[in-house]
């Protein structure tokens, strides 16, 4: 009898833990989707809401003499999105989400293809670090790669 109770307790814990993890993964994905939806809509407030106040944005810059890392401020990125001309359409299309969560920390690996006015510009991978704060999941760090090819479909 005690073995059955113990086994039922363990199974209940695993089911509950899995449910919480899936909920966190969905919430992390929703933050990232909201970021890119805001970018497509040129909604600076929506873009800014995805980030923590002191978030860091970086990109790997491929050069013949060796890779370097460039840093952008979130506030500059938000301003650029908000001031994008009406006729310019920016569309970052995520092809996959690989999300891992440990408590209040999450990481997301998202291959993408980027289009400007419907024309392919570049592709790469975003690596997001997120933290669950009092107001929900926020991006605290993002670094990406950018290239013309090869690109995943």
UniProtKB/TrEMBL annotation:
UniProt entry tagged with the keyword Nucleotidyltransferase: no
Signal found in the keyword field: yes
UniProt-listed InterPro entries: FrzH/put_lumazine-bd (IPR039437), NTF2-like_dom_sf (IPR032710)
Keywords, in A-Z order: Signal
Highest taxon, organism lineage: Bacteria
Signal sequence residues: 1-21
Annotated protein name in UniProt: Nuclear transport factor 2 family protein
